[in-house]
Amino acid sequence: LKTPLKQAATSQLVLTERQPDCQPLTTPPKPKETPPADPWTPTSNLKMLISAASPEIRSREQRRQLSDSSSEVLQTKHCLQEHLLGDEYEKSQPSRKEKSLGLLCHKFLARYPDYPSPSQKSYICLDEVTEELHVERRRIYDIVNVLESLHMVSRLARNRYVWHGRHNLPQTLQALKKVGEENKYIQQIQMIKKREYEHEFDADGERNEEMASSFGSSEQSEMSFVELPGVEFRAASVNGRKYKSLRVMSQKFVMLFLVSTPQIVSLEVAAKILIGEDQLEDLDKSKFKTKIRRLYDIANVLSSLKLIKKVHVTEERGRKPAFKWTGPEVLPNTQDTKLEATSTTCSPPTSESIPSKEQCSKALFPSKGKQNFTRHSSLIKLVKTIENDRRKIQSAPTSPVKISASMYLFLIFLLETSFSLSQKKTKSCIKYLGLPSSHKTCRCVAEEMQMKCALSSPEAVPKPEPSQQPGLSQPLGVCPASHSSVSPVILPHPPSGVSYAIYLHPSQAHTVTTYSPGFMLQPLPCANVTGIKSNNSKVLNKITTEEGDTQRGTEEPTKSLAAEERPDTKSETSSQRCLKRSQALPENNLIKRRKSDEESLDTSSTFFPSGYLIPLTHCTHGNKAECSSKEKAGVCSLQHTAYSSPITGVIPMPASELKTVNIPAFHITPLNIMLSPNSIAAAPVLSNSCLNSSSTSSAPNPSSSALNFMLQHIGLIPAGVQVPANPVLQHVPVSSQSESISHSSGSTNVQEGKVSKNILQLDHGGLSGKYSAVPSAPKEPQEPQAVTENFFRTPGGPNTEPSLSANSDGTQRISQGTLYIPQRKLEVSED
DNA sequence: ATCTCCCGCCATATG
DNA sequence: CATATGGCGGGAGAT
């Protein structure tokens, strides 16, 4: 039976925790925007409290993002009430939920900003954490390990970790996606599914044949090492743990999401694949169970990070637990993007000192590991070479403008997407940008972009890829620019056969680019664009999104039926929206085709034998501190010249901070921008300018359109303002749902009108997450549904309604056959 | 009964 | 050797 004592203790903990919890949250030591509660409303504190206290909270993390959905508010209130009333009593249920990893993780995350300023690093002391959160150490390790796998933290020494926040996330995800693709996870998944349903009896272990082949091949060689004690990335001299299984598992798990098209992964499949990788053989039941347990642990943390969300897939076999990716869309793996970003975060292995590239490499490749050795030396060489080249290039005159433009764009993008900026900041930025002055800036940016494009790759600019959608490509003209800015250098490693990619700083990067255009040139941008249109999983997201919470049952009906959801509207800030959008970004898988070509070339990160991916980004420069600062300074200075006033004015942060922030993002910016279109918002803009122009084949002003699009997307500019994309957009009442819906269908068919609508909706809507598609639909003639094509097959055609429907129980789900899944139909439902 | 997944033993790694 | 990490699986709460 239960141990009364225990319970009591727990309850106590809970109580005590609350108070402390709140405080810290509100006033985090490091003032960052992080705090979960978005807008700092008077009630925010309460919310936090409640959330902390309430048992159900855990799942609702997502709501946070959604911020305002009415349901959410209601819930919160509800919770509030309850808790308030019960206040002291709450001991009532120390229940298991209150001790859940997810909740714990939530608390943990609340202590640190999503995007810590580079200048001030936050360190994590496990002892403190365990004490403050009142948890056993073991649990913290679970959390930290997963965070490590995402490079959100890194270990410095015993008891000591550094908090990086989400700065590295984009790179990490990109790297993971890439590896996942290399690993042919998609194939593996399909194989498993196939086998599963072909042979009912699959349970036992003989699955080798096919599996083996798939597994064994290619990357497997590298992957196989994974579980081995291989070396691990050791941040400084410290640590070098051998068993990184949880970390590795976490990465692989994430990879599965990133590569699979409906970004939904069932635990069963994940477990099988993960097991299969290490040991092709024994499919043991107990092993399977253990794997599942671990996956749940990981999933809880990832859920707290809002990267995934729990759902259920119903196949012929029955309903199976699964998770859906709700994190940021990963940029198409273009080599360019990869770069840098984290210059600031550079793995700082050792507390401060870090010096030359050599050291860097050393840090990355600990001498201990034999396997590493080989690579080590070669890597260093490569680094050197690159550096030299870089230097040369740098000396050459470069146009600062470009950089600044990129930066600027990036900044904007950052504001939107990156959740990191505090809302305040974002708001101010937006405000500022919203002014006419912003236009000017934009223009500049656009010009810049164009220039870049031209410079970077002639081919890209003029005629993107014929194969790809021509129409789209144009607008993308901007994209090329991005390439130029970011260019990863790839180092082929003959012996191992593995290639390492080194990321350069922006300044460097572009230099490099010049120097070796070949790599950069990839038409990726175009591809991306196309991809964007084509894929999109938003729909699904939306559907699921809503509920996130436990009590969804109650609310759901309402939601589904009525679009009303956001009665309160009150506080959704643009930033929030942005966040949502960003999260909602559909995955674009389109790019895959090119991959094959590129694969060899592009490597965003090095793959270690251990299986744990470590981004090399940091290494780029010799001295981490120096480097970053230098580079930053350089970049910044350039920027400042051009845009200093706007930026500074906009952002409240100190210049130094800005610099850092910008830089990292910098490379990515272009890509992101491009991608953003994927997200719903983008589509409209594109459709207007891009599509039209595309037909013509020459876009009058691609860059400007792109810019507008960006701005709109971000919310800086009101939907109609710059580019009167669609009148419709403005009034679209459709709630957040629209977002999910949005998207386009196949790469080929893009419907402008529809798209535009979606965009508008997004802006206004919100994101409540509820699915009100049906009701809302009537308003707009063109329907958003068309958008859903990817996921749903709309028999009726574009105009038909989506196949989504509410179940009797109020749960929404996709009707059978609607879900677009390559092999079979699935039903996805939230839990 | 099944799904989740907390708890904490105990092997290892680290210092 | 004392601790810090973290693999692992029993078994119990949640559904």
TrEMBL record:
Cited Gene3D superfamilies: Winged helix-like DNA-binding domain superfamily/Winged helix DNA-binding domain
Record field: compositional bias (Polar residues): 800-818
SMART domains assigned to the protein according to its UniProt record, in alphabetical order: E2F_TDP
Residues covered by region (Disordered): 1-44, 458-478, 544-604, 734-754, 767-818
Subcellular locations according to the entry: Nucleus
Entry keywords, A to Z: Activator, Cell cycle, DNA-binding, Nucleus, Repressor, Transcription, Transcription regulation
Organism superkingdom: Eukaryota
InterPro entries associated with the record: E2F, E2F_WHTH_DNA-bd_dom, WH-like_DNA-bd_sf, WH_DNA-bd_sf
Molecular-function GO term, any one: DNA-binding transcription factor activity, RNA polymerase II-specific
Cited Pfam families: WHD_E2F_TDP
Keyword ATP-binding part of the UniProt annotation: no
GO biological process: negative regulation of DNA-templated transcription; positive regulation of macromolecule metabolic process; positive regulation of nucleobase-containing compound metabolic process; sprouting angiogenesis
Low complexity bias spans: 735-747
Membrane-spanning segments: none
Residue ranges annotated for the E2F/DP family winged-helix DNA-binding domain, each copy included: 96-165, 241-327
Record's keyword annotation contains Kinase: no
GO cellular-component term (any): RNA polymerase II transcription regulator complex
Extent of Basic and acidic residues compositional bias: 549-571
Family that this chain belongs to: Belongs to the E2F/DP family.
Name under which the protein is recorded: Transcription factor E2F8
